[in-house]
């Protein structure tokens, strides 16, 4: 069934927007409306992560108490392509947010072996920002082992760092009195990246951040709360 057949949903985008804007604080209501509009569709493309999509849906609850039924409606409206076709073919068994979330993960979350391979081969790409690289490695580590020791996470972060920064980061990490944490790696790596950009400003213009599920909205808010705290 074509992706544009989303009008078969029981609710419309406009009705969801009006219903979810229930926050008594006008500022929170505005943020909620903006976040809903900016929420990108999940199509099931390998470049997208279903865990990010689910977290973005549930993040809407930070603005006002949304019911599971409303989260289910929002999520189904934000499915597209193969992901919407999958939902449309199985909608009778996906009639609650709990069931939809569980089955989205089962259907679109990479297998453990695939996550391990991605983590092992993960390298910071040319033009990829440090924060985008860091967040992706942390996410892969959680997929492989939610209780992965911090020193192993740091090893993966260091192994995939750009060669131009790797030696400088490792040198500073070795001076730390205790076993370094991912948060310490990020602080040191950012310092080294900023220093390199000052010395080689032409490289700074090539660095771009990964697109979040709330692309413009997250730029105006503190996104640090959306990242895992491994400090």
Describe the structure.
The protein has helices spanning about 15-20, 25-40, 50-60, 70-75, 80-90, 95-110, 110-120, 130-145, 150-160, 165-175, 180-200, 200-205. The longest helix has 18 residues, at about 180-200. The radius of gyration is 20 Å and the shape is elongated. Helices cover about 55% and strands about 0% of the residues. Mean pLDDT is about 80; it is low at about 1-15 and about 215-230. With about 230 residues, the protein is mainly α. The chain is built from 12 helices and no strands.
Number of domains: 2
**Residue runs with pLDDT of under 50 for 5 or more positions:** 1-13, 215-228
Radius of gyration: 20 Å
Q: In angstroms, what separates the terminal alpha carbons?
A: 46 Å
Q: What about the largest sheet?
A: none
Q: What is the H-and-E element order?
A: HHHHHHHHHHHH
Silhouette: elongated
Helix and strand composition category? mainly alpha
Report mean pLDDT, rounded to a whole number.
Answer: 81
Proportion of beta-strand residues: under 5%
Number of beta strands: 0
What portion of residues is helical? Answer: 55-70%
SS field, number of helical segments: 12
Organism: Adineta ricciae
Domain Retrotransposon gag: 74-154
InterPro entries: Retrotrans_gag_dom
Protein name: Retrotransposon gag domain-containing protein
